[in-house]
Amino acid sequence: MDRPANVGRCVDMTDGQAAGGGGARSAEVALDSSVPPRPGEPGEPAGGPRRSRMRRGRPAGRGPVTAVAFGPGRVNLVGEHTDYNDGLCLPFAIELGVTVRARPSLDGLMRMHAVDIGSHDVFPAVAPPRVEGWRSFARGVVALLTEAGYSIRPARLTITGTLPRGAGLSSSAALEVALALALLAHSGHGEPDRRQLAGLLSRVENEWVGARTGLLDQTASLFGRPGHALCLDVRALGAIPAPGQAPGGVPAPGPLPAPPASAARASGADGGRATPGAEPAATGIEPVRLDLGRWRLVTVDSGVRHAIAASGYNTRRAECARACELLGIGSLRDADQDAPGRLPEPLGRRVRHVLAENERVRLAVAALRAGDLPELGRVLDASHASLRDLYEVSVPEVEATAARLRALGAAGARMVGGGFGGSVLALFPPGRRLPAEAMRVAPGGPGRLLPR
Ligand code: GAF
Fold this sequence. Notes:
By secondary structure, this protein is an alpha+beta fold. The protein has one domain (1-452): Ribosomal Protein S5, domain 2 (2-Layer Sandwich), CATH 3.30.230.10. It is built from 12 helices and 13 strands. It has helices at 50-56, 135-147, 171-186, 194-209, 216-223, 234-239, 261-266, 280-283, 313-327, 347-370, 373-389, 396-407; strands spanning 67-76, 88-89, 91-104, 109-114, 119-124, 155-161, 228-233, 285-289, 296-301, 412-415, 423-428, 439-440, 448-450. Helix 2 crosses helix 3. It is globular, with a radius of gyration of 21 Å. The structure holds 2-deoxy-2-fluoro-alpha-D-galactopyranose. 2-deoxy-2-fluoro-alpha-D-galactopyranose is lined by residues 25-28, 80-81, 83-84, 170, 213-214, 216-217, 308, 417-418.
């Protein structure tokens, strides 16, 4: 695909730099409203864990509330499976997400209550043992915040959510963000460096959950901006060391420093007064106005629960790593247009997708800037076809959902997230009737503390 001349800043912000963002990464999983169960939920007794655990632990919901935090889910307009290849993505945080309320725990134990699934967990605040299922998210957040130098006070946490079940809208990042912000505030810490926090939370996915995901979801959830999509240059996100941080996006041990002014602007903490486009050179995040006029973006659940660790996601990531090895490059961001032809299949197809998907992010940004929504629709369709035919992460139910949405008049429709199920995003022109099960999505604000 030709690269348009007028794409603006969201292009190759770190070309020429060493690949650095391939380390710690983020995730998206199937969810149960407030917590994202992992495939099969091993360790989860048949019929659910609730009774036995409830007996063991005091319910999380008593005592004065010390902090309330919200973590939003996300929709990715385009730029799928590019984040762990140091590429470009165009997500936005949505208004639905996960809320965590913290209260003191007086016995030194962490107590979690996932209200929507009636599930509990109790574990020591220091060195939590590893488990399977949703509990690994909370334990991982506590463990990695502690490892980063934060003292985390024992808390009783109540988790609730508004994200629809099984929708693939990154409930895991929403949960991690809400947990981290609530725990930090509960423990008396100020606003963290959000870029570092995104890296740390993505390590929860990698090291505690077993999903080798990228930075897309946590960054979208932490930096969401009302009215805007975020053009992410993941190489820039991972490659620019922040104070106390090693290149590669992995926070070095030690307290996270206060956010740089640019991060506060990108997070919307300045009330949205920042000059759009001022941040990306420093942060790899560029807000792009998402002006849809009377057009509507909706998601429709394919009905297939998608679960990253059990899906082919990790396999795809390994294929990309193998392609890099064969090409002698550190990251597919450095692959040239001829690279696919030098690779055996299916690696050639995977690389072809990644190269074209980065270009589609540029095309989508250009279309948004030009107010050309039919073109945005074409980009969505092209992304979907590439994910299906080259990256091979579709399933029949997702295909049927996308086809139905197009038949109903969508200008474009594509799977969102890691694939193998989850939701389809569709762009509808004015005047078209939306299917009853369609959920309208619009860009909301970043993960944040709420009034107690
Ligand atoms: C999931 C992952 F969590 C992201 O990091 C990203 O790779 C996405 O799938 C695919 O673009 O949401």
